[in-house]
Automatic annotation (TrEMBL):
Keyword Transmembrane helix: yes
Membrane-crossing residue ranges in chain numbering: 79-99
Name of the protein: Putative anti-sigma factor
Pfam families in the record: FecR, FecR_C
Occurrences of domain FecR protein (ranges): 112-202
GO molecular function annotations of the record: sigma factor antagonist activity
Swiss-Prot/TrEMBL keywords: Membrane, Transmembrane, Transmembrane helix
Residue stretches making up the Protein FecR C-terminal domain: 247-313
The species this protein was found in: Microscilla marina ATCC 23134
Superkingdom per UniProt: Bacteria
Length: 320
C-alpha cells in the first residue's frame, strides 16, 4: 500500500475493503496510542455540525495529495464523511510511514545496473542493493519502529534494538526483525518474495494475515508465492554470492554450475554438447571476472571456451 493517509481515511469512512481493513487493524494493534488518538478525534468530528462546511477546501487538499502519488491517477469524489476522514488523517499526520515532512523525510536509493551499492541507515543498519533495486527509507526512524520499503533484492545487516523492531514492506509481505542478517528478494516480475536468513531470527508474514507468521532462523528461507507462505529449511549455497562475490561448488554438475554462472555474471553460458552437463566439479571462485572463472573450469575439466558478444560456449569431450 503506497498511500496510508487515504487508506486510513477510507477505513474511518467505511469505504475500505476487507484486505484494507486487515491492514489498518494490524497497524492499530502495533500502534495503540496513535490509533486511540485517531479514533477519538474522528468520533469528535461526527458531533460537529460545522465540520462539513470545510469539505470543498478539504477535498482540494486530498486531491493535491492524490496528484502527488504516482500509483493513484484517478479517484472520484466520495461521501462527505470520506473527505472528512481524509482531512482528519492528513491533519493529524500521526502515521509513521506517511510522507508528511512534519514527521519524517523519506529518501529513495536505486540501482539500475549490475553495480552493487551499499548504504548505512540512521540506526546503523547496513543494506546492500542488488541490481534494479529500490529502497525507500527515512532519514530518521520513528520512536517505536524502524520501517523501510523494498522492491528488488537486498542484503540487510540490522543493528540490534529489541525496543524498536525493524520492518520491511515488500510486495504483499512484511519482514520483521530485531537484529539479524538476511537476504530479501522481492522482484515484481517474479511474483514472489523470498527471505533467506544468514544469522538471527526473522518473522515473515502476509500483510493481510499478520496473525499467521513464519519464524525463520539461520539457514531457513521463507517464500510467499500465489498468496501462500512456505518455510524452506535450506537454501541454495550460493544465494549470497551476488554480495560476497564468492561462488562455491562441491561435486556439482557442470549443468548446475553453468546455470549459476549465467545468473551471477549476467551472461548466457551454453554447453556445445549436453553430455558435458554430467561432469562434476569441486571448486571455489572468489571475486573473479568471468573469463578467469571460465579458465579455471576449462583447465580442471579439460574443456575449451569461447566468449562471443552474446554468450559463452563451452566445448570438449564428455567426462567418463
Amino acid at each position: 500500500m503506497q498511500n496510508w493517509d487515504l487508506l486510513l481515511a477510507k477505513y474511518f469512512a467505511g469505504e475500505a475493503n476487507h484486505q484494507e481493513e486487515r491492514q489498518v487493524l494490524h497497524w492499530m494493534q502495533a500502534n495503540p496510542q496513535e490509533a486511540d488518538k485517531l479514533k477519538a478525534v474522528w468520533k469528535s468530528t461526527q458531533s460537529k455540525q460545522g465540520f462539513a462546511s470545510d469539505v470543498h477546501f478539504a477535498w482540494q487538499q486530498v486531491q493535491r495529495r492524490i496528484n502527488s502519488t504516482n500509483n493513484v491517477t484517478k479517484l472520484k469524489r466520495k461521501a462527505v464523511s470520506w473527505v472528512a476522514a481524509a482531512v482528519l488523517v492528513l491533519g493529524l499526520g500521526v502515521v509513521w510511514w506517511s510522507l508528511s515532512q512534519k514527521k519524517q523525510t523519506w529518501q529513495i536509493a536505486k540501482t539500475l545496473t549490475k553495480k552493487l551499492d551499499s548504504l548505512t541507515l540512521a540506526d546503523g543498519s547496513k543494506v546492500w542493493l542488488h541490481h534494479t533495486t529500490q529502497l525507500r527509507y527515512p532519514t530518521t526512524f520513528g520512536k517505536s519502529q524502524r520501517v523501510v520499503h523494498l522492491q528488488g533484492e537486498a542484503y540487510f545487516e540490522i543493528a540490534k534494538n529489541p525496543a524498536k523492531p525493524f520492518i520491511i514492506y515488500s510486495g504483499n509481505t512484511i519482514t520483521q526483525v530485531l537484529g539479524t542478517s538476511f537476504n530479501l528478494k522481492a522482484r515484481p516480475e517474479e511474483q514472489k518474495v523470498e527471505v533467506s536468513v544468514n544469522s538471527g531470527k526473522v518473522a515473515f508474514f502476509d500483510v493481510a494475515k499478520p496473525d499467521k507468521k513464519v519464524l525463520l532462523t539461520q539457514g531457513n528461507q521463507g517464500r510467499f508465492e500465489a498468496g501462500k507462505l512456505k518455510k524452506i529449511k535450506a537454501y541454495h549455497p550460493n544465494l549470497f554470492a551476488w554480495k560476497t562475490g564468492v561462488l562455491s561448488f562441491e561435486q556439482a554438475k557442470l549443468s548446475t554450475i553453468v546455470q549459476t554462472l549465467t545468473t551471477h555474471y549476467g551472461t548466457p553460458i551454453r554447453l556445445a554438447n549436453p553430455q558435458l552437463g554430467r561432469c562434476t566439479l569441486t571448486t571455489q571462485l572468489e571475486r573473479l571476472p568471468l573469463h578467469e572463472a571460465l579458465e579455471i573450469i576449462a583447465l580442471t575439466l579439460h574443456l575449451q571456451y569461447q566468449i562471443n558478444d552474446k554468450e559463452v560456449l563451452l566445448s570438449g569431450k564428455p567426462c567418463p
